[in-house]
Amino acid sequence: MSVEEPRNTVGSAEAEELRARLAEQAAALRRRLDERSRKEEELRGDCLLDAADVSSATEALRQHQADTENDRTLLARVESALDRLENGRFGYCARCGTEIDPDRLRALPHIEHCLRCQTELERPQSASR
Hints:
Largest sheet: none
Low-confidence stretches: none
Mean pLDDT: 84
Number of strands: 0
Order of helices and strands: HHHH
Helix content: over 70%
Shape: elongated
Radius of gyration: 20 Å
Oligomer: single chain
């Protein structure tokens, strides 16, 4: 019995194109997170300045922190996709191991799950709302 080597579901030319896209997206997210860090300091300062505006400044800070966390999550997914490209596991569902639809990967190269698993993973969240 031979052990099958990991392989990406996309060809080498397409893999290089996706790698470039993902690397560019990761760099842009890192820059945005750096900018968000500076902006958060400003927002924190605004919260201390005017007691009458504390509520709106606090809400702006809360929204900024949520957006920052979303960017961090996306960056982690992009970096994970780059790792999967490197180790030959790009294009396979992290949950069930089946091949992810190539059109889905082209649209969202950072996705980790096939449509069926993604639907199942989201189902409990929508049921609890």
